[in-house]
Amino acid sequence: MRRPRLDGVSPYPKDVLIRRSHPISRLMALLLKEAMSKQIAIVGAGVSGLTCGVLFAERGYRTTIFAAETGDQTTSAVAAAIWFPYDAAPLDAVIAWALETYEVLQPLGADPASGVSMIEQRAFTRAGELAIPEWAVSLGARRLPAADVPRAFSSGYTLAVPLTDTTQYLPYLTKRFRNAGGEIYGGIHLENLEEAALDCGLVVNCSGVGARTLLPDREVEPHRGQVVLVPGIPHSHATVCDDPPLMYAIPRADDCVFGGSNDPSADRNPDPALSARIVAECSRALEIEPPSVLRERVGLRPFRRSGICLRADRLRDGRRVIHNYGHGGSGFTLSWGCAGAVLALADSA
Ligand SMILES: Cc1cc2nc3c(=O)[nH]c(=O)nc-3n(C[C@H](O)[C@H](O)[C@H](O)COP(=O)(O)OP(=O)(O)OC[C@H]3O[C@@H](n4cnc5c(N)ncnc54)[C@H](O)[C@@H]3O)c2cc1C
C-alpha cells in the first residue's frame, strides 16, 4: 500500500482489496484473522473519524481512514466548534461523553499547535431567567451580573469551555494520526460499508450525515447550519443564545464565527439573505457596527432522531463494525468521549 503524501490525500489504492480466489489452510486462516483483528478501517475524515483514528493508531492498531470528503470539505470544518452540548440526544449519554471530552480538550489548550484554547462562554436567553444546567454548575458556571447582560438578552451565565479552532485543530488531528502511523485516503465514496478495505477485521463508521444513505439509516436527518466569518470583534468572550433565532459569536485567533441557523435541509449552498440576517442579529446582540463578511459557510449537522448511534454490529460479510455517527450539533463536544467508547467496544471483543 502506498503511503499518502504528508501534505495531501492519496488516491484510492487498488491493493487494499484482498481477493481470496484460492482456498487457504486453517493455520493461514487463523493467522489472517489475527492480523485482520489489528487492522482498522475508519469511514469518515471529520472530527469523529479523525479522533477515533488518533486513539486507535496511538494504541498500535494499523488504522486507515477512507472518506469521500476531507479537510475543509467536511461538515466538521464548518463548525464554530465550541464545547457546548447542543442538538444531540439522548441527553444523559451526551452529557457524559461531553464531560469526558472536556477533560481531554482542556489540557490540549496548553499546546499552541492544537488550535484548542479555553474561552469564556456567555450563554444568554432573550426572556426570563436562564437556568444554569447541572453539568454547567459542575464546571464552575456562575450567573452573570445584570451589568454584563447586553440589552438584547434578559439573563445569562458564564462558563470556561474549550474552543477548537477547526482551521488548526483538524490539521492537528490529521498530523497526530499520521505521526502514529495512520493513513488517509480521500475522494472515496463508498456505496456500502462492506466496500471498506477487506483486509481490515474491524470497520468504524464515522460517516456523519452520510450514514443516511450509506447504511441506509433514515433516522439521520441533516440539520443545515450556516455561519458567517467576519474579522475579529472587540469581545474576547464567546456569546451564545439558543432561543430562536439561534445566535452565536465565537472569536477565534484570526477571525470570528457569527451564527447561526438550524433547519431540516440538505442544501449546502449559502443563502445571502440568511447571512445578512445573521450579521444583523449578532451585531445587534453584541452592540457593534455590522462587520464585513469574509466568508459564508454551510454544514449539515448529522442529527439522528432516535439518538447518537454508537454500537457494535456485524457487516453482511461477517466482519465487525462499530457505528459512531449522529452527533448533531455536538460533534466536537462529544468527540473524545465517543471515540473512547468506540475503542472500549473494539477492545472488548
Ligand atoms: C454551522 C455549524 C456549527 C457547528 N458548531 C458546533 C460547535 O460549536 N460545537 C460542536 O461540538 N459541534 C458543532 N457543530 C456540529 C459538528 O460540526 C458535527 O457534529 C460534526 O462535524 C460531525 O462530525 P463527523 O465527523 O461525525 O461528520 P462529518 O464532519 O460530516 O464527516 C463525515 C465524514 O464521512 C464521510 N462520508 C460520509 N459518507 C460517506 C460515504 N458514503 N463514503 C465515504 N465517506 C463518506 C465524509 O466525506 C466525511 O469525511 C456545528 C455544525 C454546523 C453545521
Low-confidence stretches: 1-8, 14-21
Task: Output the number of helix runs.
Answer: 8
Biggest β-sheet description = 9 strands, mixed
Outline: globular
Please provide a brief summary of the model.
The chain is α/β, with parallel strands linked by helices and 349 residues long. It has helices at residues 26-37, 47-58, 91-108, 134-138, 166-179, 211-214, 272-286, 331-348, and strands at 39-43, 62-66, 116-125, 142-143, 155-164, 183-185, 202-205, 220-230, 238-241, 247-251, 256-259, 263-264, 295-304, 309-314, 320-325. It folds into two domains: 24-76 and 167-219 and 305-348, Rossmann fold (3-Layer(aba) Sandwich); 115-163 and 221-303, D-Amino Acid Oxidase, subunit A, domain 2 (D-Amino Acid Oxidase, Chain A, domain 2, 2-Layer Sandwich).
What keyword list fits this structure?
349 residues, alpha/beta, Rossmann fold, D-Amino Acid Oxidase, Chain A, domain 2, 2 domains, 9-stranded mixed beta sheet, 6-stranded mixed beta sheet, 8 helices, 15 strands, globular, disordered N terminus, binds flavin-adenine dinucleotide
